[in-house]
Amino acid sequence: MFDAKRLLGAMMEARSGSSAGSRLDKAAGSGGLGEAAAALGQMFKGSGSAGTGGGLGGALGSLAGMARSALDDPKGQLKAGNPVATGGLGALAGGLFGGRGGALGGGLLAVLGTIAYSAMQKAGHEGEAREAIEQDAKRPGASAVPVDEAQASATATLLIRAMVSAAKADGQIDGTEMQRILGHLDEAGVDPEERNFVLEEMRRPVDIEALAADARSPALAAELYAASLLAIEVDTEAERAYLQRLARTTGLAPEVVSQIHRHLDVPEAPATA
């Protein structure tokens, strides 16, 4: 099986010339996300579900104290060089997974998982988010907060599918755009299996129902929506309609969708019937 985290990182690098980077910077610099990251870390630290290897749960658990210290004493922690104090959640992700490829993909999982949790928390669904994340941690497959390498790989694969699907919101990806994306992946050093996976996904018809079926919890659905929002500029009616349909099909509460848009600083289109 290919390295899904590396491929996710390469997909984000392929979006580097777009607004995706600035949206992530906006979200990662949010103090609210730092607080959510600390809460997630404490959740896994206290539950014994931290996991090992590529698990985000374990990583957040081990660094929960770092995030909490930055929140409680930002000036002192800034002097001490705490990466969360100096660079926000983006620095936390960099500290966990710093680098390119799989490292970048792991950092993206960290940020997107925290955006999902924070959006549900701010929308008044914190209890539902905690329950969903804790339940996901106990079963194989994709999870909003992966606790081991297998879950991280499954989650990264689902998010890649979501990003490619969103890119097809205006219809099929034309040959020029397809070659641009594949060119970026080649530059990132992806292997033939990873490249072929993306190529096959780009050629598939849009199937929101299949994505929704694999987003098995509200927290994972929120993460999938956030990844989709990063994949497109949201400057056409087709893209706005796609996002609305995705939210409806995954069962995301409107207030959670609104919070995701706020975190990523993307205006939300008026709801349609």
TrEMBL record:
Spell out the Basic and acidic residues composition-biased ranges: 127-139
Which domain of life, per UniProt? Bacteria
Under the heading SUPFAM superfamilies, the entry gives: TerB-like (SSF158682)
* InterPro entries attached to this UniProt entry: TerB-like, YebE
Name the Pfam families on file.
DUF533 (PF04391)
Q: What are the start and end residues of every segment in region (Disordered)?
A: 127-147
Q: What is this protein called?
A: Tellurite resistance TerB family protein
Organism encoding this protein: Marinimicrococcus flavescens
Question: Lineage, please?
Answer: Bacteria, Pseudomonadati, Pseudomonadota, Alphaproteobacteria, Geminicoccales
